[in-house]
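User: Show me an example of a complex going from sequences to structure tokens.

Assistant: Sure. Here are the input components:
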Amino acid sequence: MCRWLAYSGEALRPSTVVLDSQHSLVAQSLRSSLGAETVNGDGFGFGWYPDDGSEPALFHSTEPAWNDRNLRELTRSIRSSLFFSHVRAATSAPVQQTNCHPFRYENWMFMHNGSIAQFHKVKRDLTFAVDPSLYPHILGTTDSEVLFHLALTFGLQDDPVAGLGAAIRHVEEVGRGHGLRFPMQSTVAVSDGSTVWAFRYSSEGRSRTLFHSADVPTLQAMYPDAERLKLFGPRARLLVSEPLNDLPGAFIEVPESTVAIVDSSGYHHRPFLPVA
Amino acid sequence: MCRWLAYSGEALRPSTVVLDSQHSLVAQSLRSSLGAETVNGDGFGFGWYPDDGSEPALFHSTEPAWNDRNLRELTRSIRSSLFFSHVRAATSAPVQQTNCHPFRYENWMFMHNGSIAQFHKVKRDLTFAVDPSLYPHILGTTDSEVLFHLALTFGLQDDPVAGLGAAIRHVEEVGRGHGLRFPMQSTVAVSDGSTVWAFRYSSEGRSRTLFHSADVPTLQAMYPDAERLKLFGPRARLLVSEPLNDLPGAFIEVPESTVAIVDSSGYHHRPFLPVA
Amino acid sequence: MCRWLAYSGEALRPSTVVLDSQHSLVAQSLRSSLGAETVNGDGFGFGWYPDDGSEPALFHSTEPAWNDRNLRELTRSIRSSLFFSHVRAATSAPVQQTNCHPFRYENWMFMHNGSIAQFHKVKRDLTFAVDPSLYPHILGTTDSEVLFHLALTFGLQDDPVAGLGAAIRHVEEVGRGHGLRFPMQSTVAVSDGSTVWAFRYSSEGRSRTLFHSADVPTLQAMYPDAERLKLFGPRARLLVSEPLNDLPGAFIEVPESTVAIVDSSGYHHRPFLPVA
Amino acid sequence: MCRWLAYSGEALRPSTVVLDSQHSLVAQSLRSSLGAETVNGDGFGFGWYPDDGSEPALFHSTEPAWNDRNLRELTRSIRSSLFFSHVRAATSAPVQQTNCHPFRYENWMFMHNGSIAQFHKVKRDLTFAVDPSLYPHILGTTDSEVLFHLALTFGLQDDPVAGLGAAIRHVEEVGRGHGLRFPMQSTVAVSDGSTVWAFRYSSEGRSRTLFHSADVPTLQAMYPDAERLKLFGPRARLLVSEPLNDLPGAFIEVPESTVAIVDSSGYHHRPFLPVA
């Protein structure tokens, strides 16, 4: 599986959270506390929206993140107000740049932690359910990228919550047709460049962890001496696979079957595909 | 497109032809005389049948062959009586190990120079036509690997000439359905570990070049002072995209619409998908 | 050897010249017209000064530039007013990120096309001559990086022209002590983040090519219909191994034994290590 | 630091111990029990002596060993009677093929787990102590490769125990001159193609772990039902950083300040640089 983070807020150097936190994403690549795997060394990705409103840019590498010099250089040299980063622990798909997250389609970015169960059994059915006009945009061979293109097929760009919901329901239907009990395991992040949606859902109801950061002004009031908190503006929000530090109250777990949303109004969440 | 060579005969160090010929395959990677592209620097592959009769082993790299140290080490340290090697000039599929030739299925190896025209348009239809049981074995994203799996679908393992012939006819039928005039361009090498089949065929009747080496005893008689020829045994045969040296008579062009076959009886060829 | 370009002027997307010119640096990586080698596929580098005045950032890759997706993404997503880019044709040093140009020391960037003759013979003497406090900053194994550290040793940061001049004289002295007639072949670019110095010099007086771009307002007046010229501001200046297009007057050769300087006053040049 | 293994004995597929043991070297790359680091994902190497008595061949990769397909292919397809393999956890030197072990000089192979303390401080002194004729053979930038070339300088080829002993004493002398209390930490393996020497030594007397395998006929008698033991011939011997399985008696710790030797007479060991 994998670890990821998504940031939205005042522009800052991505290295602040990708590299320099107590349990930064790069630290998690070598030693994750809450992940299904301890080591997430099978490549990584970093994607950011340039401030001029153009499509997101992607940097993908097959190297482990912990020793990659380019990632250090890049995340210390740019500033961004919306970016994703992901470290991968490959399940079955090969370690190659086209299998690194985040994925992109026009102004949309997508990344995933989790898996489609027994993907080799259902891959063909799921891939052929992707809209033929989207099919040529699949560049790699992961379950995650197929899930993204299914979500696009089912209307992600019009309504991300409905689109991903329908995609997951389709994955579950196909999976159950192949005799799988729990076809879907996921935390997913999606953005259109303005809003970030983060989904925590699994067929089993035992999903990978997902956290959101607390309100920064509140945190700063709680910890007036915490120098590091001064790096963040009042609108800064993180969605993360696991907390970036041990500061009590800094990261709050997102419940099961929930979509967490960060937009100009701040953070809120609501049920997503709840079990009846 | 690409350049490739296939060797069958007495066991020898593959470096003899991969690295050390006047126009070795590695030399061709940097400067090809007859190829559609001068530079074939988008990864390479080397596959060989171990002498114990087991499945072929593959070495794939995304680096240009001309500076790759591992290729030098490997081809200078083993001996093999049947091996393939391929240097790639990527058309559209990304440079990644899973897109490097040769490809393998059980005891079969396959490599390709050429392309399926407008592959992004026909990829979905062609991939759909692969037998569902073979579909999960497609690891990369090239037209070549789809062609191989189509040939397997159409019976390559029972009859390589009929199997690849039917696959190409299918590619042409699908391509023409998409309005393409010349859907297929190819020279292909296939082996089961005993026989090597090399195909030269294109829909247009203007295929990439293909050559076979002359009979070694005859060559040795023609050039009694040629020290290098003494490296080769009497059964040694090469099938190559372009000649490995300038020695008159050493390499003979294989005609259009032809399958060249090297087996225990030596070299022969016959028509393949001839224009009516 | 190699090909490189340096840009200074109004902030623009580096892709404008790295990727999108008629003979962009990436195009030259696959087919250079004037270089000592046609193919420069042994890795590449891109270095830029962020607009906040911090140290330059580096992106290095061992892949050929022509198919590298990260280079496309990065140079299309940032804007920079001073950047270097370099494509490498390895002479003897291995293809690895630490051998990719540009090199950096504090706020200085350095890149090189050319070579120190018979480097394996003189490497020990030259490396010994590097100031012991600078020695640990040598990360790779190229002649170019040793030349940079020799120039730093001889005062590059105080006076780049004198510092590099003294370094080259030292290389020549050591080389001649080893019986070499023409120890140095170079075009070098150096910057401190404000000024760019580009040197054309070889012991033989037959240096690799070096060009500077013409004054942009003059060019725009000459070619009022050239849409592409409108991408450049009035202070834009390029220093390049070979012209990026075939537009007459757009690129002007820098003479032998010359240092070309681009700073806030525009372009000028003066003699560098002239033969007596 | 790192993990390594050395095999000498009847020819076998290296995958037997590199990939397929309970705690194979590749398993250790992801999760080492006894190593200074849990993860050894910064590249790996495999070196083997071909059966024709020629120089050893090397395969080096910067990828983590656990997902590398080429390592699987290679070690499953050849057979060798003497091979080394190493997985790396980089301390300071970059992740690049030239920093992967084993290193080679003529018919000698060398690999190392451990480090020279504060290498950046002593690197210059140690490097310039290497014989000038050997200096150009240093290809990478690790402390380990410098140690190998110092040992060659001090006579490794004539007497490996004396040569490495003198090299370590020199490292200690230089290190103490720089104020270091414990300059050397090491387990080292060396071979000339016939004998394997494995050294366990550290200035502090608290060295990284080192084990040798038990006599195979004895083990087979102890565990008559152990199918896996039947893969090994009576002369098979392993020297390893940590045991490859949990079988009681299968691996025996080599004492501190000891050189373990495997040759045609079997296994024996003797003191190496013992504290007075």
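The lines above are the inputs; the final block is the predicted structure for all four components together. Chain D has seven helices and 13 strands.
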